[in-house]
């Protein structure tokens, strides 16, 4: 087994408090396979001392490397950069805050070494460390996504914490889309996968960089990237409204023929106008979301830009940089 058999890809953004603690946890909890792995940090435009902390660790640890992105491109882009550069036969993607327990990687590694699985992902069986609102919205998102997406199904209570082999990595590296929803992309590959349950602990240090607005946009990206249902549903809504409009017009016609002409009420007219106007604006908004994503894709801008690479990894000039 080579010394670089497993690469741990760790996207970081303003995580200076967690760098040293994370590396020490990896050394202690993965001691049995430590000689077979390397750690690849991807700095996503941190503005604190994260880069200096990682650089100091690189000096004393020859199996640690850093990809420093030119600015903040988002976690999905940071993971993409890590997967593009990772050299291991398999890659583990995890967060630096230790809410993804390093010890679980041993089970990931064992299952992968059996040769029966291409992906081994973590399943959160206890999310008590999360707020009630986050647990409810996360559960609702998985159910909604799987209901709308017919071909790609997300295992519930899974995140980015997983091990993927070289076959899956190569497949992901072929996907050029700019609006990236990595959980969906992992599921889309549809290679042999198995889940490993684990209890998700509280964040070690620092605070999360996600808020509910960013999570809402993230969920929106995920749904719109893997289903055209929000576009298709407006055809059914249109047919439904037309059907009821036909019934109402028939009622007015019959009423007029048999009871004479009556002056329509102002309130009912305004209600219908406002209702239809709202429906039209909502449908235009959905169409606009898809057009905005098309606009982003056709510009073909790089998913990320790299400022520098330090450690054992050297810069690789690729179209995505």
UniProtKB/TrEMBL annotation:
The keyword Transmembrane helix applies. Residues 7-170 form the Glycosyltransferase 2-like domain. The chain crosses the membrane at residues 233-254, 266-291. Its main location: membrane. CDD domains: DPM1_like_bac. Keywords: Glycosyltransferase, Membrane, Transferase, Transmembrane, Transmembrane helix. It is found in: Membrane. It is a multi-pass membrane protein. InterPro entries: Glyco_trans_2-like, Glycosyltransferase_2, Nucleotide-diphossugar_trans. This is Glycosyltransferase family 2 protein. It comes from Shewanella surugensis.
């Amino acid at each position: 087994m080579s010394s670089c058999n497993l690469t741990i890809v760790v996207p970081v953004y303003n995580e200076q408090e967690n760098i040293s603690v994370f590396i020490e946890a990896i050394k202690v909890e993965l001691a049995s396979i430590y000689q077979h792995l390397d750690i690849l940090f991807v700095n996503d435009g941190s503005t604190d001392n994260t880069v200096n902390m990682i650089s100091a660790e690189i000096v004393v640890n020859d199996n640690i490397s850093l990809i420093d992105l030119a600015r903040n491109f988002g976690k999905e882009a940071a993971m993409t950069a890590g997967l593009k550069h990772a050299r291991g036969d398999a890659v583990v993607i995890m967060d630096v805050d230790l809410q993804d327990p390093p010890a679980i990687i041993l089970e990931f590694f064992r299952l992968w070494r059996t040769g029966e699985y291409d992906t081994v992902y973590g399943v959160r069986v206890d999310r008590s460390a999360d707020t009630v609102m986050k647990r409810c919205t996360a559960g609702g998102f998985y159910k909604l996504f799987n209901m709308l997406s017919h071909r790609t199904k997300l295992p519930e209570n899974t995140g980015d914490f997983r091990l993927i082999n070289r076959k899956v990595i190569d497949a992901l590296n072929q996907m050029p889309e700019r609006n990236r929803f990595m959980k969906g992309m992992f599921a889309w590959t549809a290679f042999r996968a198995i889940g490993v349950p684990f209890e998700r602990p509280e964040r070690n240090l620092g605070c999360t960089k996600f808020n509910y607005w960013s999570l809402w946009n993230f969920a929106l990206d995920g749904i719109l990237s893997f289903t055209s249902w929000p576009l298709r549903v407006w055809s059914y809504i249109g047919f439904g409204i037309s059907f009821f409009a036909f019934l109402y017009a028939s009622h007015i016609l019959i009423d007029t023929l048999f009871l004479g002409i009556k002056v329509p009420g102002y309130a009912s007219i305004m209600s219908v106008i406002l209702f239809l106007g709202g429906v039209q604006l909502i449908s235009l908004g959905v169409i606009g979301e898809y057009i905005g994503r098309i606009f982003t894709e056709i510009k073909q801008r790089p998913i990320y830009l790299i400022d520098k690479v330090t450690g054992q990894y050297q810069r690789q000039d690729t179209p995505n940089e």
